[in-house]
Structures are given as structure tokens and as C-alpha cells.
Amino acid sequence: MPQRETVSEVIAAATLCVAVPVDRGGELAAGAQEVLESLPIVRYADVREIVEVDADDDGLAATIDCRLTLHVDAPSADGATVREVLRETALVRDVDRFAVVDGPYRIERW
Question: Which domain of life, per UniProt (predicted)?
């Protein structure tokens, strides 16, 4: 019988600057969503608005307003800790705004 894993789910509204691969430059919103959803903590990302786009030697950086569904360990479900986890990833270049708007909820996964 498979073992259940319990996580906390929080919904957050955020303004983030993310590194978007150059090959996704024509589809910035989809590229930013893929980048965010590739992070282990992000279950789902909804890009609401592209605020700004910068290009440099490292590629494209898109500042986006988004809504995130995050799965975190129960002790780290508070907003400040989750914000720091996002900030420490290589793909998130900056966190301008971050607020937990719903949750935490206890989720069991198999």
C-alpha cells in the first residue's frame, strides 16, 4: 500500500522577477509559468500580468504579477519562510511582493 505524504498548501499573490529561457521569448507568460511550475515548491502558477521585461547576457528576465499554489512542509507554511524559499532559487531573481491570500490547507498525496 502506498504511503501518504502530507503537505501544506497555500495560495499566494506575488510579483516576481523570473529568468525566462530565450527560446520562450515569444511566449513570455507561458515561459514564466513553466519556469515557476518547474520549482519543487510551486504546484501551479497563474501569470496574471507581465509587468516588465529585461534582456541581458543571461537571457530574459520577466517581472510578473502572479497567483501561486504552493506545496510546502507544514512548519514552513508561513509567508515569510515561503518567500525566502522562492528567493533562494536560481530561477527567481527577485521577489517584489509576496502575500499568502488563502490557506494553509492540509493536503495528503500518494
Answer: Archaea
Domain containing 66: what range? Answer: 5-109
Rg, C-alpha atoms of the chain: 14
Contact assessment for residue 70 and residue 81, using Cβ atoms and an 8 Å cutoff: no
pLDDT, one tens digit per residue, over 25-71 is 568 889 899 999 999 889 999 999 999 999 877 778 999 999 999 98
Number of structural domains found in the chain? 1
Decide if 6 contacts 74 (C-beta within 8 A): yes
Q: In terms of Cα–Cα distance, which of 68, 80, 71 is closest to 8?
A: 71
Cell of 90: 536560481
Pairing of strands 42-56, 92-109: unpaired
